[in-house]
């Protein structure tokens, strides 16, 4: 059974860079046909897709966040990571990593709350 | 960019009611539309893909329809475990994704 787990600081200061890692277990991140993504959800609000990466390193980002987002993959560790720069309070959210293949079963991490505050 | 608009944003319903949620895309997306259910404190869960196909294990009380720009999710007989927030998601431009704003289904 595929499992995903987010890790990283729960508190980030304004203007700094938010960094999260998603560790995949129970399957290889190098499996073909799958994109691995980050989705966030501000408290009490809806879901926002941040971006996705293929094991080869190809990335796709939400245009509204593209200038601040970097997603990378480390196949040797079966992990992929998110960096979001110049954060503000508006970036406070639960961040999920997920494997979202539309016509296949979806897999999500449990989510991790990141608060932007000084 | 494709925008997804859901309506209503919330609704109150009773156990046994038939509930319909609407999702509209800003441009045609064929049938590349999925529906997710999210319960408080939990990650979302996929219910439907390709506008009308049920994910494995999802009960048949859930159904989806539509194509192009207009889509609906119907719950035929609302049960206590169905009270949750529902999101549509377009994947016409996969792997780029867009979620709708969500519809919270509450107990009347």
- Helix/strand-derived class of chain A? mainly beta
**Helicity range of the residues of chain A?**
under 10%
Q: What is the helix tally of chain A? A: 0
Nearest-integer average pLDDT of chain A: 96
Beta-strand content estimate of chain A: over 45%
- Annotation, overall tally of beta strands of chain B: 11
Number of separate helices of chain B: 0
SS-based structural class of chain B? mainly beta
Q: Level of helix content of chain B?
A: under 10%
State the oligomer: heterodimer
Q: Largest interface, with Cβ-Cβ < 8 Å?
A: A-B, 23 and 26 residues
Low-confidence parts of chain B: none
Distance between the ends of chain A: 39 Å
Radius of gyration of chain A: 13 Å
Q: What is the element string of chain B, with H for helices and E for strands?
A: EEEEEEEEEEE
* Portion in beta strands of chain B: over 45%
Q: Nearest-angstrom radius of gyration of chain B?
A: 13 Å
Write down the secondary-structure element order of chain A. EEEEEEEEEEE
Word description of this protein:
The complex is a heterodimer of chains A (118) and B (108). Chain A is mostly beta strands and 118 residues long. Chain A has no helices and eleven strands. Chain A has strands at 3-7, 11-12, 18-25, 35-41, 48-54, 59-61, 69-74, 79-84, 93-99, 107-108, 112-116. In chain A, strand 4 (35-41) and strand 5 form a beta hairpin. Chain A is globular and about 40 Å long. The mean pLDDT of chain A is 96. Chain B is an all-beta fold and 108 residues long. Chain B has no helices and eleven strands. Chain B has strands at residues 4-7, 10-13, 19-25, 33-38, 45-49, 53-54, 62-67, 70-75, 85-90, 98-99, 103-107. In chain B, the strands form two sheets. In chain B, strands 2, 4, 5, 6, 9, 10 and 11 form a seven-stranded mixed sheet that branches. Chain B has a four-stranded antiparallel sheet with strand order 1-3-8-7, with no helix packed on it.
């Amino acid at each position: 059974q595929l499992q995903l787990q987010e890790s990283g600081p729960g508190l980030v200061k304004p203007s700094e860079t938010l960094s999260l890692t998603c560790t995949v277990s129970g399957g290889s991140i190098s499996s073909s046909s799958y994109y691995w993504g980050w989705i966030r959800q501000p408290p009490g609000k809806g879901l926002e897709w941040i971006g996705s990466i293929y094991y080869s390193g190809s990335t796709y980002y939400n245009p509204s966040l593209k200038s601040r987002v970097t997603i990378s993959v480390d196949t040797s560790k079966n992990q992929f990571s998110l960096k979001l720069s110049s954060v503000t309070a508006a970036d406070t959210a639960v961040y999920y990593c997920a494997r979202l293949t539309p016509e296949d079963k979806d897999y999500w991490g449990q989510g991790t709350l990141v608060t932007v505050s000084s | 960019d494709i925008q997804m608009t859901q309506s209503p944003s919330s609704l109150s319903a009773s156990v046994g009611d038939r509930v319909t949620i609407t999702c509209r895309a800003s441009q045609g997306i064929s049938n590349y539309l999925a529906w997710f259910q999210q319960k408080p404190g939990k990650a979302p869960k996929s219910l439907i893909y390709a506008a009308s196909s049920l994910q494995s294990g999802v009960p048949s009380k859930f159904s989806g329809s539509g194509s192009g720009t207009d889509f609906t999710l119907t719950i035929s007989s609302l049960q206590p475990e169905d009270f949750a927030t529902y999101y549509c998601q377009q994947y016409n431009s996969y792997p780029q994704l867009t979620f709708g704003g969500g519809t919270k289904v509450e107990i009347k």
